[in-house]
Design goal:
Layout: H1 3-17, H2 20-38, H3 48-71, H4 75-89, H5 98-112, H6 120-130, H7 137-148
Helix pairs in contact: 1-2, 2-4, 3-4, 5-6, 5-7, 6-7
């Protein structure tokens, strides 16, 4: 079952359970999926990899929104945003811990023979490819900078 099909099925379950937060969140994800499928230059299909990237983008937006709401003393909206993020995170692979990310980055640095900040681009490209969906880019970037400095 593809990620798109799973989301569609879970929308039906959320409707039956009358879970408004889950339903709204899943409908938003499906809307983004449909837009990606019908975008100019798209072949009309949506791979699970693309779907995961879309969900990651939505999670990041949700967290940013929640932070903004907290800053502006809008706790109810921040809580709602974080509730939606929790629903979206159920569809993402388990996130790696910082220790795991650091170990993987050290392995990548050793395999590429990187030794200075000049090699950061190469290391980041490989790290993002290997840890796609399991680690945030800014966390990877911070660890790469620390290890190459």
């Amino acid at each position: 079952m593809t990620l798109f099909d799973q989301i569609s099925l879970d929308i039906q379950k959320a409707m039956k359970a009358k879970d408004k937060v889950r339903l709204e969140t899943l409908r938003n994800i499906k809307k983004e999926f449909l837009e990606a499928k019908t975008a100019p230059g798209s072949d009309g299909t949506l791979s699970d990899e693309k779907g995961l990237k879309i969900i990651q983008k939505l999670v990041k937006q949700g967290k940013d929104d929640a932070q903004l709401f907290k800053t502006n003393n809008r706790q109810a909206l921040a809580d709602e945003s974080m509730a939606q993020v929790e629903v979206m995170e159920e569809y993402l692979p388990k996130q790696m811990s910082e220790a795991d990310i650091e170990a993987k980055v050290k392995e990548i640095i050793a395999s590429l023979g990187a030794s200075s900040m000049k090699d950061m681009g190469k290391v980041m490209k490989e790290a993002n490819k290997e840890m796609a969906g399991r680690a945030e880019g800014r966390v990877i970037s911070g660890i790469v900078r620390k290890l190459l400095a």
